[in-house]
Amino acid sequence: MNAEPTVSEVVNTTDLETRVAELGREISADYGDRRPVLVAVLVGSLPFVADLVRNIEVEVETDFLALSRFGEGGRIRIALDTSLPLEGRHVIIVEDIVDTGLTLTVLRRMLADRGAASVATIALLDKVPRRVVDVPLEYRGFEVGDEFLIGYGLDFEGLYRNLPSLWAVLDRDVLASRPEEVARYLYPGR
Ligand code: 5GP
User: Does the beta carbon of 13 sit less than 6 angstroms from any atom of ligand 1?
Assistant: First the structure.
């Protein structure tokens, strides 16, 4: 089987680079000397925040948190917290992708409850057709459809985050059952 029909590149590295630079300029212009704190949600936002922060041309701090899901209904809790106190700070949550919007809704509330002066969100990807709750998204890189995406931070079972561009998975069963074939296609140099 050829893995090509299973995965398809949806955003290439040039378009990612261009868009992330634009977002960095937008944040610089909007925040000026307010010294925002980027709070990046691990692990998926890692490549995005690394590129974004280097395109922000004003003073900015960067911190991280990680979430874990528990119970039925996908409740979330903070598994790894920020090291900076956020009281009085202008917080920008950095997410890889907003899907139903449930995670972001809870996270925004958690950070606002810490007395942040403002809370905004930047997400690289906005999966509009899947939204269940209406949550504000001040900055977004790309609007995407209902496909499952991997690469540039996004994983399938922990893998593929290191791909430099974004791919849609057209058949998740193939990815799960024959990962070797897909890897040969996605990592041609190995
Ligand atoms: P939400 O609470 O908005 O439904 O969930 C957002 C989270 O779901 C993202 O941070 C990400 O971890 C996961 N997610 C949603 N869509 C995708 C996707 O297409 N690919 C991957 N790898 N994860 C996704």
Answer: no
